[in-house]
Every structure is written in structure tokens, then in C-alpha cells.
Amino acid sequence: MKGRSIVKYILYLLNLCAVAGLLASYISGYVSPEKFWILAFFGIAYPILLIINVLFVIFWLLTWKRFIFVSLIAIVAGYNSLFAIYPIRLSKPAVSQSPEIKIVSFNIHSLYGTKTANNKQETKSRVTGFLAGQNADIICIQEFYAIGEDFSQILSKFSGSIHLDHYTFKNYREFDNKKKINAIATFSRFPIVNSGYLRLPERGHFAIFSDMVINGDTIRVYNLHLESIRFGNDDYSFYTKLTEADKEATTIHEGSKRMLWKLRKAFIIRSKQVNLLTEHIDACTYPVILSGDFNDTPSSYTHHQLTKRLTDSYIECGQGLFRSTYAGTFPSFRIDYVLHSDKFKAISYETFEIDLSDHYPISAILVKTPQIQSP
Prior knowledge:
Number of strands: 12
Number of domains: 2
CATH superfamily of the largest domain: Endonuclease/exonuclease/phosphatase
CATH topology of the largest domain: Deoxyribonuclease I, Chain A
Shape: globular
Oligomer: single chain
Radius of gyration: 22 Å
Structural class: alpha+beta
Helix content: 25-40%
């Protein structure tokens, strides 16, 4: 009996540690990584921490029921984080008679495909065919890459191929070679009357915005590509081989340290980017649609700051548990989003699990709410 009691309290102590980790993941959405970057690791670990706490709830339910509330209360306290990975709705979105706006967001991985052996021209044709088949009103592309022709000719051909006449783009960095594009690009069925971009000092552009006229109203569409973790082949190789028995301790130490510092750097840069972005959104007088590759999870500071101002279309009408938009080895999370201001309502959301990039394309159909007006 004494042995059982010791085991019980050791498990209870472990349960408290799991709860502390879960609570830290909630706090990570409120604290900028610039100020305390360690919390961001708890945010990215939220799905794992959630599963551990669910397992503790089940375990205590089958053994000592009076401990069940420790993890249960912690899980319920983070209902916002839970709904961000598993939206729960009792009814389907109502059918609207308002005009629909379909927006697609896709990081096309510079048209490299998912394997080093992929033929770039073949991947380009498949990506173009997919986007043309979506019959979208707005398409936001990250990592739009092309070389060999003048950029105006390339963009004109591409916009014609996907049946959207208006576009704007911005290279991540300025090139002397005018026949090279590596850019964020937005294509639209609607006229673009103004555009611009956002960047941090001494860094590349991370967002563009396009003001469009839709049925007499002007809206602003942001297309984002926030700072990547920039894991290389060595990092992914290390990650996949961690369980090998002959892995040397020094190699594990070096590999872990390298990945840790890359994550830390990305967390801090993204927090600076999102702070600049939120200031820009707050100053905007138009209704806003924001989409793109955030390179961050629903439990992150990035997502929390943006959803304080905008609604996540996936939470509003998406389906599925732990839906990922990243097709790579790590991390396998939802990191691509379509958000919108309260002047819109999402009536449809879809993730396309197709083998064209290291990201899956996503789409949302939005309708204007009755109160929308031109500023």
C-alpha cells in the first residue's frame, strides 16, 4: 500500500508538471518572444501537452477519480487554444445570399515540388492548373519564383493562366537582375487601386497589401510570409535520426543546440514582424482580409495578436482535428491562414492535401456582412 501511495504521488507530481506546461503554452500567446522567448517553445508544444493532459484525465478516471480535475480544469481553461486546432460547431454555417469572395493562399515552395528530383516546369504546370481550377477571386502566393524573362511578362502570363487580370508583387529582396522574381504575389479578379509592402529594417519584405474595389467597396488584402525557421537538410536529417541507438551524445548536443537557436531567432523576428503588421492593420480604415504563411502555430504569439483583431476562417467554419497545412517533416502544424475583419463572415474553409509543395494550399469563401460600408 505504501508503494502504491508513492507511485500515486509521483504520477500526481508529473501531472502537475504537465499542467504547468499547458498553462505556459496559453501564456505564450500573450508574451512577445522578444521579451521572453522560452515561452514560445511551450506554445509550439501545445498539441503534445494537450494530449499528455488528456491521457492523465483518462488515467485518473480509471484509477483515482479525485485527481481527474487537475488536468481537466487546465484543458477547459484553454478552450480558445483547443478550438483553434479543433473547432466545435453544433450547426453548419448558414447559407448567405450575399456575393461570395473566394480566396486561396498557397506557399508554392518556389515551384520546387516536394522532392529534389521534381521537374520544375512540370510542378509549375501542375500548380498553375490547380489554381486555375479553383475559380478563385483572390489568390495569395508566397515564394513565387521565376527567372529568364522580364518580370512583367512572367506575371502577365501567370495571371492569364489562372484567369485573374490584376496583380501586385514584391520581391523578398531587391535584385539587380530584372529577369528574376522571388516574391510574395497577389492576384485578383477585382481592380487593385493601391498597394504597398512591409519590411523590418535590414531584412527582406515579409508582407504586401493590395486595396481592391469589390462591388463599390474598397477592402485591403494582406499577403504574408513571416520569418521561417530555416531548417536545412542537416536539421531534418538530425530530427529523423534522433531515435537511432548509435547516435553520439556530442552529435545530439550539437544538433539540438543548432535547431534551438534557429527556432529562437525565428520566434523573435516573427514577433517584430507581427508587431509592425498589427500597427499597420490598426491604422487601416478599410475592411481587411489577411492570408498567407505565418510559419507559426495557432498557439503562438503571432496568431494570438492577429486574431485579437481578425477572425480565423478555420475556427469559424473549418473541420478536423490537428489539421496541418505544412507537408514537410517538421513541424507538422497549421501554419497557413485566412483571417478577416468583422465586416466579413466565412462560410467555407478547405485544406487541399495535394503533393505540389511543402505546404498545402488553403481556401476560404467569405461574404460581406450587411454593415459593410466604404470608409
